[in-house]
Write a structure and sequence with these properties.
The complex is a heterodimer of chains A (742) and B (231). Chain A is globular. Chain A has a seven-stranded mixed sheet with strand order 8-10-7-11-9-12-13. Chain A has 742 residues and is an alpha+beta fold. Helix content of chain A is 36%, strand content 23%. By secondary structure, chain B is α/β, with parallel strands linked by helices. Chain B contains five helices and eleven strands; from the N terminus they run βαββαβαββββαβββα. Chain B starts with a strand and ends with a helix. The chains are: A alpha+beta (742), B alpha/beta (231). Chains A and B meet through helix 9 and helix 11 of A and helix 1 and strand 6 of B.
Chain lengths: 742, 231
């Protein structure tokens, strides 16, 4: 170590400023056998940050099911999960959060979230074909919320539209708990031919290491550490920790990356996300059980005189680290020259298992790769947890304490224009949803987005789902519901649930009540994923979504599910098709209004248990729906979800302007029947000529079902009372969100 | 048979969609033309696809218009060769002066992607030759700068010469303000040059051609282009 580097020896105070604990600092000294210099301490601080190390979550994440017959890359193995979808094709998919940057700088925060998740997909050699996102904001009436919504949506749109991958689905949800901490979760899915995948690994002594793509600037330094702390008044001062995105560079990087893989010259590749060069060099080296010598002065930079730690920690976007077969350097350089991208040789693979960073002849940092990474030397913590008081309190809720409103049409009108229920077209019309000419849902909507795999009989079905109100009410049940609802949506579209990715958004893990939510979410997710045989292929954990003055956000485990449709002929859509078709409910009505939007927002009753849910009943309902779709006895299938049965019927009615005429169930409260959100229910429409066969199939299943009424006229009729025309409701449903955001 | 050349600029992202439609659905020979190329490879129809050429950070199409391949495209068009620009391709054609007018930011300053309806008023150009006049075609748009603008004198000439190839309309074919998604002058969705060999349009017909996407209204437009082969 040079004298300059030695001069910068650190103390525990420096470590604390970088977000490390005293114990962690001592562990670093033990690993190195000496006191780290500032550059080395910075390296440890980002690699051991929550964001990179999962130190407070990994104990529980390991309990999730991750094996399955179709899983090609398990959770933690690569940058994204990889699922075999047949025909020699794999689907790489992953969801990731960009919450903290978006809270401060919504436009760039959201934009770079889109960029980062797509790089995770194409660094594996897969071409992204679809994107989704899951967004949560605070009270829509607040000016700050409107600013965040507009910034986030424009950021996602501008980045994704230029990058040129369609945004095929998503969710937008508003609740006061997100006033300070909005959640921005972005998902991408890509397709790769078997045998053309690339691993995030490094080996072969003497093999050259290249950095490609954008030059390295001072943006995003300590972004990972920043994402691992509560948001405070001072967070705005951390603005340089927010990265800046360039979708044009990303598009070029995509094309160049996929082209360079075809040369066969690549040993391994990883994109630079959190912790930039530090993370990619150490993770690839640890995986390949080798070391690297890297010269930081050879890294193309955007400004002069960047310090070594700045180059190491920069989270400048649109960059990749590539380890190349020695002797094939020219092939790689040629491709990047064609796309006018930087391609700089910055080092080589060694057998030391250490990452040595140099500036010229000066060694500025020398750290062991394995000790930096998750699964290696990074700390692992068992956290205490305790049941929060609100949970016990919620169990006391009795439906009889709420009177059935006399004017149910007023409730319907309230829900149709509620921002959590109304159409999100104000948002999604700003996203290019059709580029790639593979989005099959544009003109034929289904519960999940269906994306064509051209040249095959196949399509994939994608869905993001999480009702965080349910998860807050009961983390275990609520998360099982999130998985089940995603699966139900995939099944209602005619596809088979295959695997999930998750984005786990929580408050501060050092708060035992937050950690209790986390632990129970994992339990609920695990049981549902086992039941539906949908292993968890990865994702990310975002803790510290809380502020000093408003407390934690709802526990929000966003589920991104992949389904496979083996034959597109089995696709099912959600809209009513023909006047006179019968409408059936698969599953059964329940006297339950728990945690419904109706109870929460119309009656302002906030603390109640999760809606009725039984995993076995759910399983039987989905099994029955699969059968009746496959046997082609239904014209439409639509999951009964937010807003309850009435909103579900309206959604099926709107596409073709076809109304419905149904009757109440005399044994169920009218408000619970129309607006309750009990789970495991699907609305289907059936041609009269198919009705006998439909009933036979349903009788043979283990799911309950009941006749509700008919597709009829252009009005919404319940027990002879009109709730208005479908066209009038559609007008409000379509425009409500835009009006609220004005 | 004719030979189509689809130009790929850095940042083009509808190039493969266009190639898929021309080659796999319409059965035509298609070659890719790289922006650095200086040869049209013997193509008799050039297509400038949608996307964000060179990132479009300055003004859509402003940089692409100066690329090496565009010199050849301009030469080809000036000799009467057929050129179609869709979305970003239309913006590039305007910047290059191959069709009149300009494309401004949408009225509400937001990017818009959705299905809209357009109609051809006559069959006097190649691109509208097979489109039933007055029929509302459902074709998607996806743009932030798609508001067609030209001065009153130019608009008058375009009308008189039959150079307006498509206008935004409602599903029944009525040209109304409500059916105008971006504030385009006179609901103009597409125009051609005076020679009627260069066509520019904001809507994406290639996104409405594959039966698997449940909308094939764009085929009227591609069928029209292929009528060139018959004649």
């Amino acid at each position: 170590m040079s004298t300059t580097a030695q001069d910068q020896l650190t103390t525990v105070e420096t470590a604390k400023k970088l977000g490390l604990l005293q114990d962690e600092y001592e562990k670093i000294i033990a690993i190195l056998g000496r006191v780290p210099n500032f550059t080395e301490l910075s390296i440890f601080s980002v690699m051991w940050s929550e964001h990179c190390s999962y130190k407070n979550s990994i104990v529980w994440l390991k309990k999730l099911p991750k094996k399955g017959p179709y899983i090609l890359a398990e959770a933690g193995e690569e940058n994204a999960g990889l699922v075999d979808i047949g025909d020699g094709l794999g689907c790489a998919f992953k969801i990731e959060s960009h919450n903290h940057p978006s809270a401060l700088e919504p436009y760039q925060g959201a934009a770079t979230g889109v960029g980062g998740i797509n790089r995770d997909i194409f660094t594996m050699g897969a071409r992204p074909i679809a994107q989704l996102n899951s967004l949560r904001f605070g009270d829509i009436k607040l000016e700050k919320t409107k600013w965040l919504v507009k910034g986030v949506v424009k950021g996602i749109g501008d980045y994704g539209n230029a990058f040129g991958i369609p945004c095929v689905g998503g969710e937008v949800f508003f609740d006061d708990c997100y006033n300070v901490n909005p959640l921005v979760n972005a998902m991408s899915a890509g397709i790769v031919k078997a045998g053309e995948t690339v691993s995030a690994t490094s080996y072969g002594v003497g093999n050259p290491v290249f950095i490609v793509g954008s030059a390295t600037g001072k943006d995003g330094i300590h972004g990972a550490t920043f994402a691992s702390a509560d948001i405070t008044e001072d967070s705005a001062k951390d603005l340089p920790a927010v990265q800046v995105g360039d979708p044009f560079q990303e598009k070029l990087l995509l094309e160049a990356t996929l082209e360079v893989i075809k040369t066969g010259a690549v040993i391994g590749m990883q994109d630079m996300g959190a912790a930039g060069i530090t993370c990619s060099t150490s993770e690839m080296s640890a995986k390949g059980e080798h070391g690297m010598d890297i010269w930081l002065d050879r890294v193309p930079t955007r400004q002069a005189n960047m310090q070594p730690f700045e180059i190491l920690l920069s989270e400048s976007q649109e960059r990749m680290l590539i380890v190349v077969k020695k002797g094939r350097e020219k092939d790689v350089e040629k491709v990047f020259a064609k796309w006018d991208l930087n391609c700089a040789l910055i080092g080589q693979v060694t057998d030391t298992k250490r990452i040595k960073f140099y500036v010229g002849d000066e060694l500025v940092a020398d750290v062991p790769a394995f000790d930096l990474v998750l699964g290696g030397g990074a700390p692992v913590y068992h956290r205490d947890y305790k049941e929060p008081a609100y949970f016990k309190e919620a169990q006391k809720f009795n439906i009889d304490s709420v009177e059935v409103p006399k004017d149910l049409k007023a409730v319907a009108d309230f829900l149709i224009s509620h921002p959590n229920i109304a159409s999100k077209q104000w948002v999604y019309n700003q996203y290019d949803s059709m580029v790639g000419t593979a989005n099959m849902s544009t003109n034929a909507p289904s519960d999940a987005a269906i994306v064509n795999i051209k040249g095959t009989k196949k399509a994939i079905a994608l869905k993001v789902d999480c009702n965080a109100r349910y998860v807050n009410a009961d983390p275990e049940v609520g998360c099982a519901i999130a998985v089940s609802e995603a699966a139900r949506n995939i099944v209602c579209s005619g596809a088979e649930p295959s695997a999930i990715t998750n984005c786990l958004n929580f408050g501060n893990p050092y708060n035992p009540e937050v950690y209790w939510q986390f632990v129970n979410v994992i339990k609920g997710m695990g049981s549902a994923c086992i039941k539906f045989e949908t292993p968890v292929t990865g994702g990310n954990v975002s803790f510290y979504n809380q502020s000093s003055y408003e407390g934690p956000v709802f526990p929000t485990p966003t589920i991104g599910m992949l389904g496979v449709m083996k034959d597109k002929a089995n696709r099912m859509t959600l809209n009513f098709k023909n006047e006179g078709d019968s409408i059936y409910l698969i599953g059964s009505s329940k006297n339950c209004i728990n945690s419904s939007e109706y109870l929460y927002s119309f009656h302002n009753v906030k603390n109640t248990p999760a809606p009725f849910f039984n995993l076995d009943e759910e399983y039987e309902v989905q099994k029955a729906v699969k059968t009746i779709i496959k046997e082609r006895v239904v014209q439409s299938a639509h999951d009964c979800a937010d807003g309850g049965l009435f909103i579900t019927l309206l959604e099926s009615a709107m596409t073709n302007g076809l109304g419905f005429d149904i009757s109440f169930d005399s044994e169920i409260r009218k408000d619970a029947f129309l607006f309750g959100e009990a789970q495991s229910r699907v609305i289907v429409s059936v041609k009269k000529s198919d009705e006998d066969k439909f009933i036979d199939l349903m009788m043979a299943s283990r799911a309950e079902f009941e006749y509700l009424g008919d597709v009829k006229g252009n009005e919404m009729i319940v027990d002879d009372e009109s709730f208005g025309t479908v066209a009038a409701a559609k007008k409000i449903f379509d425009s409500a969100l835009g009006e609220l955001l004005k | 048979m004719s030979k189509f050349g689809v130009v790929i600029f850095p940042g083009s992202n509808c190039d493969q969609d266009m190639i898929y439609v021309l080659r796999d659905i319409m059965g035509q020979e298609v070659v890719e033309l790289w922006h650095k190329d200086t040869d049209l490879k013997g193509c008799d129809f050039i297509v400038l696809p949608g996307g964000f050429s060179y990132g479009d950070y300055l003004r859509s199409g402003a940089i692409a218009r100066f690329s090496p391949i565009m010199e050849k495209v301009i030469e080809f068009a000036n000799k009467g060769g057929y050129v179609l620009g869709v979305c970003n391709g239309f913006q590039i054609l305007c910047e290059a002066g191959l069709v009149p007018g300009a494309l401004l930011h949408n009225n509400d300053r937001k990017f818009i992607c959705k299905n809209v309806f357009i109609k051809a008023e006559n069959n006097s150009t190649l691109i509208t030759s097979e489109v039933p006049t007055g029929k509302a075609l459902k074709i998607p748009i996806a743009h932030g700068e798609g508001k067609y603008y030209a001065d009153a004198e130019t608009i008058k000439q375009l009308n008189e010469n039959g150079q307006i190839i498509f206008r935004y309309c409602d599903e029944n074919g009525n040209v109304t303000d409500a059916a105008n998604p971006n504030g385009a002058t006179e609901n103009i969705a597409g125009v051609c040059n005076a020679g009627k060999n260069v066509f520019g349009m904001m809507p994406h017909p290639e996104r409405a051609t594959d039966g698997e996407l449940s909308n094939i209204d764009g085929r009227w437009i591609f069928d029209s282009l292929l009528s060139m082969v018959k004649n």
